[in-house]
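User: I'm curious whether this sequence folds into something compact or stays loose and floppy. Could you predict its structure so I can see for myself?
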Amino acid sequence: MQSPKRVLGIEGGGTKTEWVQEVQEGDGWRVEAGGRLPASNLRLTTDEALRTLFRELPGDVDAVGACLAGCATEDDRSRLQGLVQERWPGIPAWVGSDRDSAMAAAFGDGDGIAVIAGTGAAVHGRAGGRVEKAGGWGQLLGDLGGGYHIAMQGLRKVLNLYDLHQRITPLAETILRTLGLNRLQDLVQWVMQADKMSVARLAPCIFAAAREGEAEMLQVLQADAGVLAEYTHAVAVRLGVTAPQVRLFGGLFAHHPDYRALYSYRLSVLLPKATVAICTEPGARGAAWLASRFAVSFISANPTGPLDRAVALSAAAADGGAAGAREALERELAGAATEQSNPRSERLDELSTSEFVALFVTEEEMVARALQAAQEPLGRALDVAAAALQGRGRLFYVGAGTSGRLGVLDASEIPPTFGMPPERVQGIMAGGAAALQGAVEGAEDHPEAGALAVKERGVRSGDVVCGITASGRTPFVLGALAKARENGARTILLSCNPARVRSGAEWDVEVDLPTGPELVTGSTRLKAGTATKVALNLISTGAMVRLGRVRGNTMADLGVSNQKLQERAVRSLVAAMSVSAQEARARLEAAGWNLRACLP
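Assistant: Here's the prediction. I'll summarize afterward.
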């Protein structure tokens, strides 16, 4: 057995899974690849879902470290080891929990206390070979200090204030808006159906409310940060240390400095000699470190040749590799037409109302010109979509941000307008449903997440996937398109950047709408968004016409679900049959408001 040259580190939690692949360079290590996939808490994720996720990770590795939240018992580790060995047979594999990867990332073999506050929360400490833990009992029994618990406490206080004082607080309004609900009563049903991650995503609303002066929400944050500090103190006491190195992990600490401050203040009272800092090393690198160390011990115990591997992780090399990839993407994005400054709007903030309106209307004329210039590829995109739907295939729109929302919007309008079952035209949004109403951090940055979404939606031969990306380079979209093509589906790329860098991949149809720079630099919800919406209308409407879902210019399969649509169906039948409105209504009522059945 030769010394391993490439290791894979995986850290999975309740919100996301991060991975990194490191390759040996001299006596150090360089990050060769990495990314982010959906959540993989071992207690909340099925074996089949984990198998699907693992298949998206590199296979050509010499050692694997897999550290997933919820991996707490020997049975858990046995289950995870089996799944890892199934994906990487015969490869040395170290498995454990996300606490293990956090400790490794922060301290290597050294001593210290890791405090994790993400969707859940836990404290894990080590000193002189002894290990102590506190918290991390799951959302039903605790997870105090984590995003789920904070969100639930906030929701309880919102409802309590309503019960006591009939007060709809600003936070209550924010939560209803964020969830797309109309009444506080609707929260009950939502919470009963929501998973742990969906609830935890409301935590930023609690932080915002506290910053804006809602005293009850500040109390929630103080209480949860205080519990984590008390857990840290308890772990330190059990370890017998008075001046521990404390490292903070997780999104709550990383993205909310006020939470760090509340925790640090409380800990300074309990453990005045503790040294507290954010851990900048990702947990996936800790998992890779554990994999490399385990592989060496495995090889030592099973030697077939000299041991020539020096176990070392080079943070500088890793950061350099990651920075290089980021810089390449930044250069490419900076060159996109949609990111350029528009010279006609350089004084936008100085314009009068009439001048602003005139400029805006004039700029929108470029949308029509862009669509005119792309008529030929738009026609081919329509043909590809229509052929797939005629052959019982499906049309998938894939996008992030505005592009993704436009795809989901177009897909959602097909059933009521044309009577097409919702599974035939679907939208895939980077970041999932939560990203429809707000930003989900980093959702668009990982091609493997797009590939996994396409795989889990069951995209196959006969389907068509339309990737929507204003810049033409969104990794989530390109990853989805690549996986779709691999699965035998046809592919369409819709962008607003004819000058985009071609990566070598060729899609079946490429539509580039030359909408030019936006009035507000980089805001592709403007001209690019308008042109994209029209292009999607054209493709889907044309396909529905080809499928016979339109008779003349009448929605033959209109879904009649309210009074407005009943009146539309009556008018359509009056025009088509030259009958009175009274007779048209009678025929429609007799046919159960099936317009197609009434048309000649």
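Summary: The CA atoms of residues 27 and 310 lie 6 Å apart. Residues 348-546 form a domain with the Rossmann fold fold (CATH 3.40.50.10490).
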